[in-house]
Amino acid sequence: MLSFSLLLSLLCLTPTAAPISVPGTMQQAPVYQLVGSVTGQAGKPLAGATVALANNRNSSVITNSVGQFLLPSPDATPALRFSFAGYYDTTAVMPATGTLVVEMRPVARYKKQLKKQVKSAKKAWEKA
């Protein structure tokens, strides 16, 4: 019982202090909002395309239903990587002003290649 009351008194007496700020350590880097759109052939928007910072794959977003994206970035003009199933991956640099519009090129005979991969994967699965 004595240890419980001692612990309780220590918890109650613990001082609350404001965070200590050391010059140069608490400053936040500015965050830029990168805006753009991703299209396929004939300018059709690609919904669900992945947009990522080229140097940081952990920072990525998916385009909305009209192919637009909004990506926070520590840099104002970073290189961006775009990917979508059935299209070649594309890299582009964000312009200093305005929005970025990226047109992705489709992979030739993608459906045929996909069917071939599914068929070989199915064979490998049945063997194992």
From TrEMBL:
> Which InterPro entries does the entry mention?
CarboxyPept-like_regulatory
Q: Which Pfam families match?
A: CarboxypepD_reg
**Is Zinc one of the keywords UniProt gives this record?**
no
Which UniProt key words apply to this protein? Answer: Carboxypeptidase, Hydrolase, Protease, Signal
Q: Does the keyword Hydrolase apply?
A: yes
Q: Which domain of life is it from?
A: Bacteria
Q: Report the GO molecular function annotations.
A: carboxypeptidase activity
Q: Which interval of the chain is the signal sequence? A: 1-17
Q: What is this protein called?
A: Carboxypeptidase regulatory-like domain-containing protein
